[in-house]
Write a structure and sequence with these properties.
single chain; mainly alpha; TPR repeat; about 0% strand; TPR_rpt; TPR-like_helical_dom_sf; Ycf3; about 220 residues; repeat; Serine Threonine Protein Phosphatase 5, Tetratricopeptide repeat; 13 helices
Length: about 220
């Protein structure tokens, strides 16, 4: 319930409630009304960007996060959020710049290391990506996505043995990861000639719905 003239905070709070319930268009409307009342309402700009991000409207999200940054360049959050939007667009260099700013503003944010690792992986900067994935894994050694992407970076860095060890750890903590079983099987067969073990992992991958495994199974695992 609103008064006749709701405050900027009331409008913002209602926008958050709507966003949390998945009513993204309506939430953006409330954030806009809050910003009309106070153009320097940083949290409203940032929240509006998050709503656009959830709609996969990444250019609009970037514009909102940029507005928040112009008002306050001392908080890691808007840089991190804008980096995520760039990452979704595969604009890896732009994402990296934002993640570097976010990291400089708050060294304790583990998600920054992981997401920056993804940007570096996209840029094929494998050694730097490994450093970031290792930083993320220091905080949580059993994080399956960090392990999986670390293995990708190790393969890109011509370290198949290291990748095999990391992929084994990945499927140990996430035995539903069809992509990890696939990469494990392919690496076992192509790097070490481990046909039996590789085929077993490829078949596990296929059973988990990872259909790319079917070609390898047909070509190399038929009796």
């Amino acid at each position: 319930m609103f008064s006749c003239s709701p405050s900027e905070q009331e409008l913002f709070d209602e926008g958050i409630k709507l966003m949390e319930s998945g009513q993204l268009d309506k939430s953006i409307g409330f954030f806009d009304r809050a910003i009309e009342k106070n153009t320097e309402f940083i949290a409203a700009h940032n929240a509006k960007g998050v709503a656009y991000f959830q709609q996969e409207a990444y250019d609009s999200a970037i514009a909102s996060f940029t507005a928040a940054i112009r008002l306050d360049s001392t908080s890691y959050k808007s840089f991190f959020n804008r980096g995520n939007a760039h990452l979704e667009k595969k604009s890896y260099k732009e994402a990296l710049i934002d993640y570097n700013y976010a990291n400089g503003l708050d060294l304790q944010q583990v998600d920054v290391y992981y997401n920056r690792g993804l940007a570096l992986l996209g840029m094929e900067a494998y050694e730097d990506a490994l450093l970031d994935f290792d930083m993320a894994l220091q905080a949580n050694p059993n994080q399956p996505l960090a392990l999986f992407n670390k293995a990708k970076a190790q393969l890109g860095n011509n370290d198949p043995l290291g990748a095999l060890e990391t992929l084994a750890a990945t499927v140990e903590v996430d035995n539903r990861n069809g992509a990890a079983f696939y990469l494990l099987g392919v690496t076992q067969m192509s790097a070490l000639g481990m046909k039996e073990e590789g085929c077993a992992n490829l078949k596990m991958s296929l059973s988990l719905g990872y259909t790319e495994a079917k070609t390898w199974i047909n070509d190399f695992c038929q009796e």
